[in-house]
Protein: LITAF domain-containing protein
Amino acid sequence: MPDSELSRANVMENMPPNARPQMGEMPMHSMPQAAQPLMPQQPQLVPVSQVPLGPEPVSVNCPACGASVITTVQSRSTTKTHLMAMFLCCCCPILVCLPYCMDSCQNADHLCPNCNAYLGTYKR
Structure:
């Protein structure tokens, strides 16, 4: 018998009869310990200065590259744009393209011209 089995047998012999594990039970020393609950780490907030974005380019410090830039603005169609086009299609099919041609019917996404990082959206 290996030493570990001998020492286990000695421990079992020295235990009182009511403390010995019964057939099918796990001995106390081999039972898994309750896991300590993991505390979720708080996310670290990086302070970013909030610059009010509008439909026109604005001057900001890009949080991604750190450069002081004037944003690039790209218009993006939204659900409202598509709903207006569908309404115009029912009323006057000739004007169906109008919401897609007008910037006032689309959101304005602001991007950094240096690193092309997304800076925010002006919703209409």
Remarks:
- The longest helix spans residues 79-91.
- The helical segments are 3-14, 79-91, 98-101.
